[in-house]
Specification:
485 residues; alpha/beta; Fumarate Reductase Iron-sulfur Protein, Chain B, domain 2; FAD/NAD(P)-binding domain; 3 domains; 5-stranded parallel beta sheet; 14% strand; globular
């Protein structure tokens, strides 16, 4: 503990966001770089508590007090070693994770918690900047081969761990580039895609092989993969989106968030020469869903030049303070303001969508809504509150219900549980021998930090299956849902 009074003398301070009128003119990340000396003072706020509950709050079990102390002491290389020992991709989590570690920080009981997420991100960025993030190729190969299906965070984590264990790993991705939702679902202003590319470069140098543009189940059969590989890891995510079956759903102008966001990323990276086919420019946009995906749609719509943007949530507006039903160290559902919410738009709560309204040509022109109240476990409409909202474009950001039931899953003959996920046991194994499941495909829609933890744990299970033992860490089991959000 470098500064025993740091948590008393230093207030919490996070990096500043670039001015709104500046950042909405481009697609670059919204945060300015924090002075390193200021970051060190933030790390000094870590209070060397007797029981570091932040370990429990983080599914990866990050050694948070250790690398906070090392950063305070300016021992950057040692801090990076500690961070990489539990997390393959801190540059992803440091940008995208909602930081359950911070809401379980002991300091947060009666004060502002440590800026754990920002210290984590700065550690890895300092390491990349100094060139100290090196490939870790195995000393020898096992002769075992593994196919990882899906290149999101869980698939990449499993692939990197298994490659470093000496196995030959091939990652299959149906999209044209590696990254899954990291690349196609996360807007550039939250994480620039060069961040993914530099980590993929490291993995390639370690020996992981990537096959893009391969739709497993269509371009290659399950039978051929099973005959070619000693094990298969299903990391296909939960990309089956939730729809809204109300009158007018068939109208032109209604899209799923994941139909809209990939085009925004292509536009941001100048990968298309014309305006994207789904474009918010000049339109009155309504986003259904108050979560992070809805906020991503909001920021993208603003940068495309929407005439107006409204985000609607059926639940009541959360409180500013931690609810008594969600005490420390659990993750509280409180009112949060993302960078996109600062930029423009209106947020409406306790609203139910009743109907999509058409014009004479069959295009969307409005959304019929009604205010609600949540009583006795269900939503009740409030009479007399019905009204129409003008809308040219509606984006559905209502979450996901499990993996797509595609040909590959059907060919493998794996079992789907009552929640729509692929069933697996305590060793991440499906009912089909040699086929393992990790990430959202088995867990259901969750956080990036859980995806990486699942990928690491599944890799340990696969390694043990192939060679009879493993030295790979396994931070969680499939039944472990502590602090899941």
């Amino acid at each position: 503990m470098g500064d025993p009074r740091g948590f008393i003398s230093t207030p919490r301070e996070t990096p500043k966001r670039r001015p709104v009128d500046v950042r909405i003119q481009d697609w670059r990340e919204v945060y300015e770089v924090q002075d390193f000396a200021a970051l060190q003072k933030q790390a000094s706020r870590c209070m060397d508590c007797g029981i570091p509950f932040c370990h429990q709050g983080c599914p990866l079990g990050n050694l948070i007090p250790e690398w906070n102390d090392l950063i305070w002491r300016d021992e950057k290389s040692e801090a990076m070693d500690r961070l990489h020992s539990t997390n393959n991709f801190p540059e992803f989590t440091g940008r995208l994770c909602p930081a359950p570690c911070e809401t379980s920080c002991v300091l947060g009981i009666n004060a502002d918690p440590v800026t754990i997420k920002q210290v984590e991100l700065r550690i890895v960025e300092e390491a990349f900047g100094s060139g100290s993030v090196k490939p870790l190729a195995p000393d020898r190969l096992s002769g075992k081969t593994i196919a990882v299906i899906g290149s999101g965070p869980s698939g990449l984590a499993a692939a990197q761990q298994l490659t470093r264990a000496g196995h030959t790993v091939v990652v299959y991705e149906r999209a044209e580039k590696i990254g899954g939702l990291l690349r196609y679902g996360i807007p550039e202003f939250k994480m620039e895609k060069s961040i993914i590319d530099r980590r993929i470069s490291q993995m390639e140098k370690e020996g992981t092989r990537f096959r893009c543009g391969v739709n497993v189940g269509v371009d290659v059969t399950a039978a051929s993969l099973r005959s070619k590989y000693d094990a298969i890891v299903m990391a296909v995510g939960a990309s089956k989106w939730r729809d809204l079956d109300i009158p007018g759903r068939e109208l032109n102008g209604i899209y799923q968030a994941m139909e809209f966001l990939p085009w925004g990323n292509k536009q941001a990276l100048n990968e298309i020469s014309e305006a994207p086919p789904i474009n918010a420019a000049g339109k009155h946009v309504i986003i259904l869903g108050g979560g992070d995906t809805g906020a991503d749609c909001l920021g993208t719509s603003i940068r495309q030049g929407a005439a107006s943007v409204t985000q609607i949530e059926i639940m009541p507006r959360p409180t500013q303070e931690r609810p008594t039903s969600q005490p420390w160290p659990t993750y509280p559902m409180i009112y949060r303001v993302s960078s996109a919410h600062e930029e423009a738009g209106e947020r409406l709560y306790a609203i139910s969508t009743e109907e999509f309204v058409a014009d004479e040509a069959g295009n969307l022109k409005a959304l019929k809504i009604v205010e609600t109240k949540f009583e006795n476990g269900k939503f009740e409409k409030i009479p007399g509150t019905e009204r129409d909202l003008k809308a040219d474009l509606v984006l559905l950001a209502l979450g996901f219900t499990g993996p797509e039931q595609n040909e590959f899953i059907k060919e493998l003959n794996v079992t789907i549980d009552e929640r729509g996920n692929i069933m697996r046991d305590s060793k991440f194994s499906s009912e089909v021998e040699g086929v393992f499941v990790c990430g959202d495909a088995g867990r259901g829609q969750s956080l990036i930090v859980w995806a990486i933890a699942e990928g690491r744990s599944a890799a340990a299970a696969v390694d043990e299956f192939l060679v009879g033992r493993t030295q790979l860490p396994a931070p969680i089991a499939p039944t472990d849902r502590s602090f899941s959000i």
